[in-house]
């Protein structure tokens, strides 16, 4: 039975890390560290549980299912499986996720060095995104080379830059931890837990998981057990790298109170920190790190989206589809970062909890005998909260409903869908037990036949 070498698995793991690690992942930990102060240790542990743990569960769910996101979502219903998968790919793909990588790379990696005139900024954004997505398109042309180009080249360079910044902060600490902000005084672990949940990498895991599986298959691994083992090992490597980087970036924020106490976000914190540590060279270093982080994520999203839509529309070639995706993403990226975020947040609030519930249920599939009613009940319970939250985010007045929802456990913290999901799953299990004959979702397919 063929197995990959440790070097090959390491390269795949580093590729997965880079696909996960976008600019947002660089910004969240410093912001959390600054706010947590002396409660940093508890907060970063909570952050890692959801910022690393949930994405790893997503990759594992794809590996164990032997298919892709649609395979898992179809356990609810085949139509739901298709619609939900398309919505996920469009949301984190050409509508929001891919364009945002180009906008963030420009805002943090290029804009600081350019004229502040509005007209010049708009033209610069256009030229930058054209070049940025042209490079992305080239990197996506041959998916089989993703491991070599990202895992062996771009990821080590990104990690090197982060290591330089982190080591410098350890050798010459900026300052001591300050008192925690109000939000981190009572339950820093819970607050960090929720911050990690907001990284949105769990949805990315459902997309990137199939990229990793494909990379393993292209190296001649066809045995189901070996596929799962290799994919999970790569996931652990990616998770370990993510955790180390989060700890380092969080520490930067926690020790930067003296120079970044008035910063509004993690991007400003990082900018102040690198300027303090390296002077003007720090802007170049940070800009390069942000650009690499965005580029690797963009490549992963376009590759995964292109492969999925190529399977959905066989008349369109992969090359043509990634061309359409990069062109569309270039156009959307020029709307500006603020507009893209404003449009994406309600959609992500609506669909993200659904993705989490699907992942968790996939691990208990055999224990509740694969009853479709369990999936349906849990998803309905989740949707009645998450979709309302999405409409509220859009500005739709639903005060009567939200006043009632405020009585739900953890609703004020933003995860009020947990209790309805559990109740829906339990009701689904009872319904599944009462039906004769008991309908079951099709068991997981053999991976060597996918």
Largest sheet: none
CATH class of the largest domain: Mainly Alpha
CATH fold descriptor of the largest domain: Hydantoin permease
Low-confidence stretches: 446-450
Outline type: globular
Structural class: mainly alpha
User: Could you spell the SSE succession in H and E letters?
Assistant: HHHHHHHHHHHHHHHHHHHH
Helix content: over 70%
Distance between the termini: 19 Å
CATH superfamily of the largest domain: Hydantoin permease
The average pLDDT score comes to 87
What is the gyration radius calculated from CA atoms? 22 Å
Put simply, the count of helices is 20
Number of domains: 2
Number of strands: 0
- The CATH architecture of the largest domain can be given as Orthogonal Bundle
Amount of beta strand: under 5%
Main location: membrane
Pfam family, one: Branch_AA_trans
GO biological process, one term: L-leucine transport
Function: Component of the transport system for branched-chain amino acids.
How would the blueprint of this fold be written?
Layout lengths: L5 H15 L2 H14 L3 H12 L1 H13 L3 H5 L4 H18 L1 H13 L8 H23 L5 H26 L16 H10 L3 H17 L6 H31 L2 H4 L5 H13 L2 H32 L5 H16 L3 H27 L8 H22 L5 H7 L12 H17 L16
Helix pairs in contact: 1-9, 1-11, 1-12, 1-15, 2-3, 2-12, 2-14, 3-10, 3-12, 4-11, 4-12, 4-17, 6-15, 7-15, 7-16, 7-17, 8-15, 8-16, 9-12, 9-15, 11-12, 11-15, 14-15, 15-16, 17-18, 18-20
Function: Component of the transport system for branched-chain amino acids.
Organism: Brevibacillus fluminis
GO molecular function: L-isoleucine transmembrane transporter activity; L-leucine transmembrane transporter activity; L-valine transmembrane transporter activity
């Amino acid at each position: 039975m063929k197995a990959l070498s440790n070097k090959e698995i390491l390269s795949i793991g580093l590729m997965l890390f880079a696909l996960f690690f976008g600019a947002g992942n660089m910004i969240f930990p410093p912001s959390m560290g600054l706010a947590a102060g002396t409660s940093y240790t508890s907060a970063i542990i909570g952050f890692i549980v959801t910022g690393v743990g949930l994405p790893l569960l997503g990759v594992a769910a794809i590996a164990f299912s032997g298919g892709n996101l649609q395979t898992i979502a179809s356990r609810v219903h085949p139509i739901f499986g298709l619609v939900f998968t398309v919505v996920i790919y469009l949301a984190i793909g050409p509508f929001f996720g891919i364009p945002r990588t180009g906008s963030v790379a420009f805002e943090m990696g290029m804009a600081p060095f350019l004229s502040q005139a509005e007209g010049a900024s708009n033209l610069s954004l256009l030229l930058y995104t054209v070049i940025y997505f042209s490079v992305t398109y080239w990197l996506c042309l041959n998916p089989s080379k993703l491991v070599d180009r990202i895992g062996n080249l771009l990821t080590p360079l990104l990690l090197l830059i982060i290591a330089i910044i982190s080591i410098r902060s350890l050798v010459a600490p900026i300052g001591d931890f300050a008192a925690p902000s109000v939000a981190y005084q009572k339950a820093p672990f819970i607050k960090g837990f929720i911050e990690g949940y907001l990284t949105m990498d769990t949805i990315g895991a459902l997309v990137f998981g199939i990229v990793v599986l494909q990379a393993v298959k292209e190296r001649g691994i066809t045995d189901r057990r070996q596929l799962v083992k290799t994919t999970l090992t790569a996931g652990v490597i990616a998770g370990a790298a993510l955790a180390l980087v989060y700890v380092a970036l969080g520490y930067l924020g926690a020790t930067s109170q003296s120079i970044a106490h008035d910063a509004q976000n993690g991007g400003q914190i990082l900018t102040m920190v690198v300027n303090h540590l390296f002077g003007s060279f720090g802007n170049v270093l940070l800009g390069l790190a942000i650009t690499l982080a965005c580029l690797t994520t963009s490549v992963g999203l376009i590759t995964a989206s292109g492969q999925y839509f190529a399977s959905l529309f066989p008349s369109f070639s992969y090359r043509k589809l990634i061309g359409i995706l990069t062109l569309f993403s270039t156009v959307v990226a020029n709307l500006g970062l603020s507009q893209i975020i404003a449009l994406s947040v309600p959609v992500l609030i609506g669909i993200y909890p659904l993705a989490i519930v699907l992942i968790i249920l996939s691990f208990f599939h055999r224990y509740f005998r694969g009853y479709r009613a369990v999936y349906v009940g849990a998803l309905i319970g989740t949707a009645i909260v998450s979709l309302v939250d999405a409409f509220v985010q859009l500005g739709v007045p639903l005060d009567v409903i939200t006043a009632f929802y405020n009585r739900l456990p953890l609703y004020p913290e933003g995860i009020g869908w947990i209790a309805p999901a559990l109740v829906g799953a339990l009701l689904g299990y009872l319904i599944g037990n009462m039906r004769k004959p008991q309908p079951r979702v099709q068991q997981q397919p053999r991976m060597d036949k996918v």
